TrEMBL record:
Protein known as: NodT family efflux transporter outer membrane factor (OMF) lipoprotein
Organism: Pelomonas aquatica
Pfam families hit by this protein: OEP
Keyword Transmembrane appears in the UniProt entry: yes
Signal peptide: 1-31
Alphabetic keyword roster: Lipoprotein, Membrane, Palmitate, Signal, Transmembrane, Transmembrane beta strand
Chain positions covered by the region annotation Disordered: 98-123
Amino acid sequence: MPKALTPHALSTASATLLLALAGCAVGPTYQAPTPAAATTWHAPVPHDGQSTTLQNWWAQFNDAALTQFITWAEADSPTRTQAWTRIEQARATLTTTRAGALPAASASGSAARSGASGTTSTTVRSARLDASWEIDLFGRVRRNAEAASARIEAREADWHEARVSLAAEVADTYVQYRACGLLADAYERELASVTKTEATTATMVQAGFTAPSDGALARASLASSRSSAVRQRAQCSLLLKSLVYLTGHDEPELLATMAGGSTAVPQPAHLGVDSVPAQVLRQRPDLASLERELAASSAEIGAAQADLYPSLSLSGAITRSLGQGLTTWSFGPALAVSLFDGGAKRAAVDSANASYTSALAGYQQGVRSAVREVEEALVNLDSTRQRASEAHRAAEEYRHYLNATEANWRAGTASLLNLEEARRSALSAEIDDLTLEQSQVSYWIALYKALGGGWTPGATVSTNKNGAQP
């Protein structure tokens, strides 16, 4: 006949069973998806003997004003501050979630004095200690902690993405501003030239050497040139205000910083694109954030499934009556089973599965967008590179043609209409040349951003919002 279990043996067996059950965690085992990417780039990849890496790329522009503007923007960026606060919120969520797996204890005390008329009053004092611990039998807390931990990594990747995007936006705006200044100078030169032509034409019309229609054409050309010059200066002013917005510094300080430097469009070192698409996808912080969100969604499926099962908690209390020296205590397990909830918990599982499917689709969409951005930047770079030399040659030749036509006009062998057509062609060619020069640099910046901006997978963020430097 088997021996009956002693209370101690029963307690030990129960504890062993609880530990065994606590080791279970329901729900799917997460595996990071393998992004579907080609083995090579289809767009032309630039090859240059002086190609450099993404690290410290901005310093290789050799433009002190650009470096200063990026430093200012990163030091006081509301966007980066918001990204950092989201990291702190995610860290706090993880701490709160993990606390759910730990025992909780609380203490209370009371004192009361009572009596009746003509009787002696009495004072009753008591102290109470309560403790409880919910056993994480099916891994609900652990799955929620997994999700919270994954979201910390997602928010850290978002912070790095904000840093990369901010630097790229500052640089692109600065490049546009420099190109805008060169275009404004070109319009001012044209305006000065057209002003002289209009004055000469007016004199010739007054003397009867040319028809009044030429005077009207000269005045129309002058008005058009003035309008173009004003429009271009306004565009430059708008870009300057964008730099104020991005850097947090006022216009006089920005202009003073740029005053001592070159007015030319800054030229960056060429980026080397040696990695294949699949490697580039691992270099992008935005894709890392999407993948971590996918991991969090997977863990939340397990947390929702764990809610379908019973919950077990241990609770106890000790009460001490200080006046009477009486101590009472209680201790025992409590098992809670949901008998009817109208399908709420099952719906929570369905919702978690739908969230995972949505997160997976978002990640897949992000992969496609990343590949497209790199391919587009490569195509644009190759196109502008091929057009740039021809555009520069065209600008030089049209300028020579304008000078010759102007000389012929002064000699009386060319009409004012011929002169204005030559002027428009020369100005259009110069604008095209400067625009292509600016576009080339902008496309290099776009490629820098599309390649991940030098972010290293696993890079963490300091507890100080400005602690992680680019």
